[in-house]
Design brief:
It is a single chain. This protein has 3 domains: 44 residues, Roll (Ubiquitin-like (UB roll)); 92 residues, Up-down Bundle (Receptor-associated Protein); 248 residues, Receptor-associated Protein, CATH 1.20.81.30. Helix 13 packs antiparallel against helix 14. The protein is mainly alpha-helical. The protein has 17 helices and 3 strands.
């Protein structure tokens, strides 16, 4: 759908400009008149070659798009701007073409008589079940502006938490890739040069040197295995992860990892607490909230524990009891939930738990980064040092024989 850049005057006479999308120019003018604007100038908006090139590389709707949209819609709704008008403003401001189309369709559906919940449900790949559930609760309770504010805050906190985890994982991953590349380069390009030198010695090489040369010869003759093996392992891992047993086994293994497992468990607890607390505070029924939290947990082991708690609550039991029995959630979490149930402040307690574990994640990320750096340096030193020693051992032996 083409975009039209326009200049128009408001009812008060002020000059305004912006962008509107429509099938044709006449429809764009009618759309602006519907906003009580007098069109002064309008023309098809042409993107710059650079923007056109960049748009080719954009892939769908990203999480930051949803976060910005939610925050802006929250501000507009709180300010008393009608929903359709607010969506029109956000549609014009959206820079991602894919998301612009989604907002346009949502606005058209609402203009056609659908509720915002029904219109958002049509785009499950963009708006998650959690998102739609909270909007539905706000729409039914007549507090859509408040719910959108909470939702935008939740999404911002979730993005911040995700960025922290990615930051903790990025450094060791990059260093390991560099270290592996250097090691492969030494084995393929440098060691064969030494092999030519050693062949002129006419003497049997030490075992470490023979092993290293054998490894180098193997990599040179089967170089295609270097990219093939990681790709094959990744595909096999993904296929295994798609099976019910595989998904549970992998998620259980991840939670039991010595260092990363502790961090990821804290992240999962923080996500559970914030999601559950935000849903309850927004008026979503407990059983529905638990169902949504289970689906969005991101870990099959934690999802199973939440499902057990949901079943217990359906039978009339309190949430904290089955969660404590699962052994997944720390005692502090179950105690806070128990106190929240007794005092009627479950949502507040959950948010406090989420804030606490967000701080715990911060501390864990800093500790992980400071601990991993020296470990990686030591491992790199051992690998490179072993290669160097194995290469120079024959030279040392030749030197001792010459000295003798």
């Amino acid at each position: 759908m083409p975009a039209f850049a326009y200049k128009a005057r408001t009812a008060a006479g002020a000059l305004t400009e912006g962008i509107v999308t429509a099938n044709e120019q006449r429809a764009a003018v009618e759309q602006l008149r519907g906003r009580k604007l007098t069109v002064v100038e309008i023309a098809v908006k042409k993107d710059s070659p650079l923007r056109t090139l960049l748009n080719l590389f954009k892939k769908g709707v990203t999480n930051p798009d949803i976060v910005i949209f939610s925050r802006q819609l929250s501000v507009l709704t709180t300010a008393g701007v009608p929903l359709v008008q607010g969506l029109s403003v956000l549609e014009e401001q959206a820079e991602n073409p894919a998301f612009k189309k989604v907002v346009h369709r949502v606005r058209e559906d609402i203009e056609a008589g659908l509720t915002i919940t029904e219109s958002l449900t049509k785009h499950p790949k963009v708006f998650s079940e959690l998102y739609v559930g909270m909007v539905k609760a706000g729409e039914i309770g007549g507090i859509l502006d408040t719910v959108l504010e909470r939702l935008s805050k939740y999404l911002e906190d979730a993005e911040e938490l995700k960025a922290k985890v990615k930051g903790a994982m990025a450094y060791p991953l990059v260093v390991c890739v560099i270290a592996g590349s250097v090691t492969v380069f030494l084995l393929i390009a440098v060691i064969p040069k030494f092999k030519e030198i050693f062949s002129s010695f006419g003497k049997e090489l030490p075992p470490p040197t023979r092993i290293l040369i054998g490894l180098s010869d193997g990599l040179k003759s089967n170089w295609y295995l270097i990219p093939t093996i990681p790709v094959a392992l990744y595909i096999a891992f993904k296929q295994y992860q798609k099976t019910p047993k595989g998904a549970v086994a992998i998620d259980r293994f991840i939670l039991k990892l010595p260092v990363f497992g502790i961090l990821l468990k804290k992240v999962a607890v923080a996500k559970f607490s914030r999601t559950f607390g935000t849903l309850v505070k927004s008026g979503v029924p407990i059983l529905q909230a638990l169902d949504t939290v289970a689906k969005t947990s991101g870990n099959k082991v934690i999802e199973a524990a939440i499902r057990e708690a949901q079943a217990a609550v359906r039978e009339g039991e309190r949430i904290a009891i089955p969660m404590r029995k699962s052994g997944i959630f720390p005692s502090m979490v179950t105690q806070m939930i128990s106190i929240g149930e007794e005092t009627g402040n479950l949502d507040s307690m959950l948010i406090r738990v989420a804030d606490f574990y967000d701080q715990e994640v911060d501390v864990a990320v800093k500790a992980l980064t400071s601990m991993i750096e020296p470990i990686i340096i030591v491992v790199m030193g051992l690998v490179i040092g072993s290669i160097v020693i194995a290469m120079f051992m024959p030279m040392f032996e030749m030197g001792s024989l010459a000295g003798g």
